[in-house]
Write a structure and sequence with these properties.
The complex is a heterodimer. By secondary structure, chain A is mainly alpha-helical. Helices cover 75% and strands 0% of the residues of chain A. By secondary structure, chain B is of the alpha/beta class. Chain B has a nine-stranded mixed β-sheet with strand order 4-1-2-9-8-3-7-6-5, with helices on both faces. Chain B folds into two domains: 167 residues, P-loop containing nucleotide triphosphate hydrolases (Rossmann fold, 3-Layer(aba) Sandwich); 71 residues, no CATH class. Chain B is globular, with a radius of gyration of 19 Å. The chains are: A mainly alpha, B alpha/beta. Chains A and B meet through helix 8 and helix 9 of A and helix 3, helix 4 and helix 7 of B.
């Protein structure tokens, strides 16, 4: 009886101690850290949103159907557009994607599934990790030496090869990581059912890793689409459409491909330093379009991944 | 060795003829001297302390160890004389410790094996039959297109059993199939095993002695040999479950059944 009374009193004393008070060092520390992390989050968003705000502010004013579809104007002339640069950027990124995605994903299947311990897989891994830090201007110089000088001129494929150098390591490493992260019990389940190696890869590993692989591809495309330095050495710029035949925004022949090609990044680079207001305005619009294209690609990729996995 | 002696007896009734003389992972000797026959239409239980290699022995039967790096093996495993691992696995279904349905619908999970085998026939009927045999049909017949991952743990394990038996394998291997399940789900799986025995031959690894006693016809007791450094598992005794539990011949078996370890 006496004992339980004491126990109750003890509990009451302890209960009053449970109150949360900022005077306690632990509570104070927690509150300060919560505040700090919150402030850091806001600080991290400021650059992103201020860039977006500025682009919309300055770029949206001139956004119209004619800006999207017309050729750049000659100096001092009003009007005109950035249609050829949009088409050129899409063409160059498509070429780079068409080269780097198959090589990257097949390579990742090998390095993660078929031969993770082989010399070649480890060498490829090491090379890819080094290449992720490759300065983009070097990719341009390489493509200039290896392709432009060989074929005798600036061209969209040369730019595609330069961007491939930048995209391939990202795609390979993220795809490898995504495949390796498929739980081993999934692999065991499908192997235990008598699947061949091809079936293991196509029926379980690739579908399960697809969201990760797509994220890598989108990241690579987003990075490549905005690169300027490699394009200065490879596709240069053009005031004209890709083709003389209609529709002019797609290549119709090898000749259409093998000549200097406009791109949004180089257009921004050229026009932003221009003394003419009209060209500066076009550079802003081009910047807005470039950001929008990257954004749309990202969202499309994520929608695709979520639909596939349903 | 003991391997030879057992291998020569009663070969006609055995479906799987397993004799492992040495098994290594890299330089680690995991198993030695495991020789046993698994008879058609029986449930064989592998029991023994943790790390005695009972799962490893089970995984030899459908060649799952081939995937492990550094795996080396001396001995032979005969399953109707076949040796291609992929072909072997198509005749031997496997149910794992953790329920591992694919992230796809219940229907597609069960149809998966049929599709692997390019089954040309009425897939719907096969799926329904497999789910009925796995005692899951009544619970999922109205939501066959819901994700397999939306089921409870016990249902997921029965889904995995349905997936394994949809292709009508000759043998069903179960690697501690109830260790992640509650007693009610465990009871259902055990009842199911007794039912499946009529059509399939079952080999099960379990660390639950009572479970082995309840369901198994034959029991293999494996133990760990630490005499040469390392921990090498070996087969101590193999016989009818009743004999192993009531009249064990070996001291290790007797001690283990009685709950005296070490």
């Amino acid at each position: 009886m006496e004992l339980s009374d004491r126990a109750v009193r003890q509990a009451e004393i302890n209960l009053s101690d449970l109150e949360r008070s900022l005077r306690r060092p632990r509570v104070l520390f927690s509150a300060v850290m919560s505040l700090l992390t919150g402030a850091a989050t806001v600080a991290a968003m400021v650059p992103l949103f201020s860039v977006l705000y500025m682009l919309i502010r300055k770029g949206a004013a001139d956004l119209s159907m004619s800006t999207l579809t017309q050729l750049p104007p000659p100096a001092m002339m009003p009007g005109g557009g950035i249609g050829n640069a949009i088409a050129g950027t899409i063409l160059i990124v498509l070429i780079a994607t068409a080269i780097s995605v198959p090589i990257g994903i097949f390579g990742a299947i090998y390095t993660s599934e078929f031969g993770p311990d082989t010399m070649i897989a480890q060498a490829v891994d090491f090379a890819a990790k080094v290449l992720t830090g490759l300065p983009s201007i070097l990719a341009g110089v390489f493509a200039f030496a290896a392709f432009v000088m060989l074929t005798g001129g600036f061209s969209a494929p040369a730019a595609g090869i330069a961007l491939t150098l930048l995209m391939l390591p990202t795609i390979l490493l993220t795809a490898e990581d995504a495949i390796k992260r498929v739980p081993s019990r999934m692999r065991e389940a499908v192997i235990g059912m008598g699947a061949t190696r091809t079936q293991v890869v196509t029926k379980v590993l690739l579908p399960a890793a697809l969201p990760g692989i797509l994220t890598g591809v989108m990241l690579a495309i987003a990075r490549a689409a905005g690169e300027t330095a490699p394009l200065l050495f490879t596709s240069l710029f053009s005031e004209y459409w890709i083709s003389r035949s209609s529709p002019a925004f797609i290549p119709h022949s090898i000749n259409d491909l093998m000549k200097p090609t406009a791109s949004l990044a180089v257009l921004i680079y050229n026009y932003s330093g221009s003394p003419f207001d009209n060209q500066i305005a076009l550079a802003w619009t081009a910047a807005l379009i470039l950001v929008m294209m990257v954004l749309v690609t990202n969202i499309a990729g994520q929608l695709l991944a979520s639909r596939y996995n349903r | 060795m003991a391997a030879g002696a057992i291998a020569n007896s009663d070969i006609s009734a055995s479906l799987i003829d397993c004799s492992i003389s040495e098994l290594y992972y890299g330089s680690f000797k995991a198993l030695r001297d495991v020789a046993l026959h698994i008879k058609k239409g029986t449930i064989t239980a592998f029991i023994g302390p943790s790390g005695c290699g009972k799962s490893t022995a089970l995984r030899c039967i459908n060649r799952m160890n081939d995937l492990v790096r550094g795996f080396r093996f001396k001995g032979k495993i005969l399953f109707r004389g076949q040796i291609d691992p992929v072909a072997v696995r198509r005749h031997i279904g496997m149910v794992f410790q953790q329920p591992n349905p694919f992230a796809m619908s219940i229907f597609k999970n069960v149809a998966f094996g049929l599709r692997l085998n390019r089954y040309r026939g009425k897939v719907e009927e096969k799926v329904e039959q497999a789910l009925k045999n796995a005692a899951l049909w009544d619970e999922v017949k109205d939501k066959l297109h819901a994700s397999g991952l939306s089921l409870s743990g016990g249902q997921q394990q029965r889904l995995c059993i349905a997936r394994a038996i949809a292709t009508e394998p000759a043998v069903l291997l179960m690697d501690e199939p109830c260790s992640a399940l509650d007693p009610v789900a465990t009871h259902r799986i055990e009842e199911l095993m007794k039912e499946l025995k009529k059509k399939y031959t079952i080999a099960i690894v379990t660390h639950n002695l009572q479970q082995a006693k309840r369901v198994a016809d034959m029991t293999a007791f494996l133990y760990v040999d630490t005499s040469q450094g390392g921990r090498t598992g070996y087969l101590v005794e193999y016989g009818a479950t009743e004999q192993i539990f009531e009249r064990p011949q070996q001291k290790h078996t007797k001690d283990y059944i009685a709950g005296q370890f070490g």
